[in-house]
Design goal:
Elements: E1 6-11, H1 15-23, H2 26-34, H3 40-60, E2 66-71, E3 84-90, H4 92-99, E4 106-111, H5 129-136, E5 143-153, E6 158-161, E7 164-168, E8 175-183, E9 186-196, E10 199-202, H6 210-217, E11 232-236, E12 251-254, E13 258-264, E14 268-273, E15 280-284, E16 288-301
Parallel strand pairs: 1-2, 1-3, 3-4, 4-16
Antiparallel strand pairs: 5-6, 5-16, 7-10, 7-14, 8-9, 8-13, 10-11, 11-12, 13-16, 14-15
Helix pairs in contact: 1-2, 3-5
Protein name: Inorganic polyphosphate kinase
Organism: Streptomyces zaomyceticus
InterPro entries: ATP-NAD_kinase_N, ATP-NAD_kinase_PpnK-typ_C, NAD/diacylglycerol_kinase_sf
């Protein structure tokens, strides 16, 4: 007997809730912001819009379904099931936050504050949830299968991201490593020792953000991938030429089966995805990390 679908509503703590947690009361929060020339009213209005959207989506869940909620900070401890429909109520970035914890479940992105978000990933308004949720479990439901990027270390640690993975120092120190390209884990070309401020490997979804800024900054001729393309783009940030380090390999594309390998030659580097520094892989001297197209994809409902 198969389980009924479960709607998992993913949300995040609002700015207003964070202010109340810090200052204790609405009045104290208002005083804090007014002393800095800002009004608490706009922050509270965004909070109320978000909670109205969340309530509207919750009310739209079919009566025969199960329902659960998870806050962004608890995603790494939440157990998603194969029968789940994941409903992200918030900003585009919240979809990316949830993506690495999923294994093929359909995702419905609900824009909780229309007009403030680009709407690349949260494509729908809350009033469409009543139709979208049953549609998401239909056999013929139309979804975009968005490519993800994976980092895997030589001791079997693994990290997934929807936009990009950064490998480099936590602060502003120099990252030292040897960079090597491979095809199906077979080296291609000579390794190059490098010193830089880090390496960024991203998807077509990430090509609308941090990856694009690097691409534009260096007037790159690379054709950035589209979100559904099974390719990645990579850039070395501020590579430094010296007698011991080179700059001949600072950008490129990775097709399925190809990888970018970094062997650490610093005391400590980190790898984190989609800007979430708190969930990072710690990399130490001599360790190797391989970045490549991930097998899982994010199934985003139209």
């Amino acid at each position: 007997m198969s389980l009924a679908p479960r709607a998992v509503l993913v949300h995040r703590t609002t700015e207003y809730e964070e202010l109340l947690a810090r200052h204790g009361t609405h009045g104290q929060a208002a005083f804090f912001l007014s002393a800095r020339g800002r009004s608490v009213d706009a922050v509270r209005e965004r909070h109320e819009r978000t909670h109205r959207a969340l309530a509207e989506v919750a009310a739209a869940v079919p009566l025969t379904w199960r329902q659960s909620r998870v806050e962004r900070a608890d995603l790494d401890r939440f157990l998603f099931g194969p029968e789940d429909v994941v409903v992200v109520v918030g900003q585009d970035g919240l979809v990316a936050n949830a993506a690495k914890y999923l294994t093929g479940q359909p995702v419905v992105g609900i824009d909780a504050d229309p007009g403030r978000n680009p709407g690349v990933l949260v494509r729908h308004r809350a009033d469409r949830a009543r139709r979208l949720l049953p549609y998401a479990v239909e056999t013929g439901a139309t979804v975009d299968e968005l490519t993800m990027v994976e980092a895997r270390t030589d001791d079997a640690q693994r990290l997934l991201a929807l936009n990009e993975i950064y490998v480099g120092p936590r602060g502003h120190q120099t990252a030292r490593y040897t960079l090597e390209l491979d095809a199906t884990e077979v080296p291609t070309g000579a390794p190059e020792p490098q010193a830089s401020s880090g390496v960024l490997v991203g998807t077509g979804t990430g090509a609308t953000g941090w990856l694009r800024s690097l691409w534009e900054q260096r007037s790159s001729a690379l054709a950035l991938p589209a979100p559904v393309d099974a390719r990645l783009a990579w850039f070395v940030r501020e590579a430094w030429p010296s007698p011991a380090t080179g700059t001949s390999r600072v950008e490129g594309l990775l097709d399925p089966g190809e990888g970018l390998c970094l062997t650490v030659e610093s005391d400590r580097l980190v790898a984190f995805g989609d800007g979430v520094e708190s969930d990072a892989l710690e990399l130490t001297w001599g360790q190797t990390v391989r970045l490549a197209v991930a097998d899982p994809r994010l199934r985003l409902v139209h």
